[in-house]
């Protein structure tokens, strides 16, 4: 059996001292980014993992981080994958801890987590009853607030500037008449997209046939387009997500309206199937994985007492497709 790689092996491959390897994996300040990257690349190549138990006894660091999420939810999977990958690249072990739905039980579980002494930092994508216990000697606790208690998106992904971008481009193509198919009003993201739609229509002096719907369903999009007057086209439909947009496309096609000539349709979320609809759907891609990695880098910087990372640009991107673009 091949012997397990050691910090000496990593140091030799990276061309640094063994103490430098130790400093990198314990988060010691004063290591240049170039040196740290070289050590981490060497560790990855050798599949080296530090001995966490020995490191904890020697440095009082556990090398462990926790990410907390509400129980039985699938929404933040891509956020989690980005966060976990970022932590592993920095030499940390990450545990995902689910929280009970009951507020009292959730607060008790959080207190147990923070007081356990097992973690150097705790990252949450939902609100927490406290934000940072490190002043009291416990782990750093960072709540980045990308979801509310009901796992409705808040934070970065309520940025609705892509709505304005889509309307502006459609107006430049000659569209003057628009309709918005909205999501439920208890979702911050749905409220933000509705507001962006109304503001942009007013700013550009365009005609709106109204705001319809209050659920994230294809049937809601279908019903809204079915209810439009026969003389509605030419028309641009701004749907609050891709599922609503698919219902709108079905209803428009059934009414004999062609896309994108009679009716242009946009969605949001860029679901994997959206590129394969007929016509393929213009949508907004959300880079949740990169946001998860950024959030984890914020936590690690706080744990190590370093400078916070630069916030990434371009987390939301409009993907233009056939539902708004005539073939050239």
Question: Can you give a write-up of this model?
Answer:
- This protein starts with 6 loop residues before the first helix and ends in a 9-residue tail after the last strand.
- It is elongated, with a radius of gyration of 25 Å.
- The strands form 3 sheets. The protein has a 4-stranded parallel β-sheet, sandwiched between helices.
- The protein is built from 11 helices and 10 strands.
- The longest helix is centred in the middle third of the chain and has 17 residues, at 188-204.
- With 328 residues, the protein is α/β, with parallel strands linked by helices.
- Mean pLDDT is 84; it is low at 56-60.
- It has 3 domains: 7-56, 434 Repressor (Amino-terminal Domain); 62-151 and 288-314, Rossmann fold; 155-286, Rossmann fold (3-Layer(aba) Sandwich).
- The protein is 41% helix and 15% strand.
- β5 (177-181), α8 (188-204) and β6 (207-212) form a beta-alpha-beta unit.
- The chain has helices spanning 7-14, 18-26, 33-46, 52-59, 77-89, 103-115, 161-172, 188-204, 218-226, 242-254, 288-304, and strands spanning 64-70, 93-99, 121-124, 140-143, 177-181, 207-212, 235-239, 263-266, 283-286, 316-319.
- Keywords: DNA-binding, Transcription, Transcription regulation.
- This is DNA-binding LacI/PurR family transcriptional regulator.
- Residues 5-59 form the HTH lacI-type domain.
- One of its GO terms (molecular function) is DNA binding.
- InterPro entries: HTH_LacI, LacI/GalR-like_sensor, Lambda_DNA-bd_dom_sf, Peripla_BP_I.
């Amino acid at each position: 059996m091949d012997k397990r790689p050691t910090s000496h092996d990593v140091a030799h491959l990276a061309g640094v001292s063994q103490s430098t390897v130790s400093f990198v994996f314990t988060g010691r300040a004063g290591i240049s980014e170039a040196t740290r990257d070289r050590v981490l690349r060497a560790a990855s190549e050798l599949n080296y993992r530090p001995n966490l138990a020995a490191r904890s006894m020697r440095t009082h660091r556990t090398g462990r981080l926790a990410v907390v999420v509400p129980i039985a939810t699938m929404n933040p999977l891509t956020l989690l994958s980005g966060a976990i990958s970022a932590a592993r690249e920095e030499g940390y072990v990450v545990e995902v801890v689910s929280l009970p739905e009951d507020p009292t039980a959730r607060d008790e579980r959080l207190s147990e987590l923070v007081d356990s002494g097992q973690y150097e930092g705790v990252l949450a994508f939902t609100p927490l009853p406290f934000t940072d216990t490190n002043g009291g000697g416990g782990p750093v606790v960072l709540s980045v607030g990308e979801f509310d208690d009901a796992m409705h998106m808040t934070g970065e992904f309520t940025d609705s500037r892509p709505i304005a971008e889509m309307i502006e481009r459609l107006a430049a193509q000659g569209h003057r008449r628009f309709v918005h198919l909205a999501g439920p009003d208890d979702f911050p993201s749905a409220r933000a997209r509705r507001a962006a739609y109304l503001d942009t229509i007013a700013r550009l002096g365009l005609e709106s046939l109204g705001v319809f719907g209050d659920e994230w369903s294809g049937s809601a999009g279908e019903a809204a387009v079915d209810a439009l007057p026969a003389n509605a086209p030419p028309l641009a439909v701004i749907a609050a997500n891709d599922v609503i947009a698919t219902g709108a496309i079905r209803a428009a096609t059934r009414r004999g309206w062609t896309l994108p000539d009679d009716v242009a349709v946009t969605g949001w979320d860029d679901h994997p199937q959206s590129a394969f609809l007929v016509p393929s759907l213009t949508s907004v891609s959300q880079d949740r994985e990169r946001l998860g990695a950024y959030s984890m880098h914020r936590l690690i910087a706080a744990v190590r007492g370093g400078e916070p990372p630069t916030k990434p640009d371009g987390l939301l991107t409009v993907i233009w497709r056939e539902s708004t673009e005539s073939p050239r």
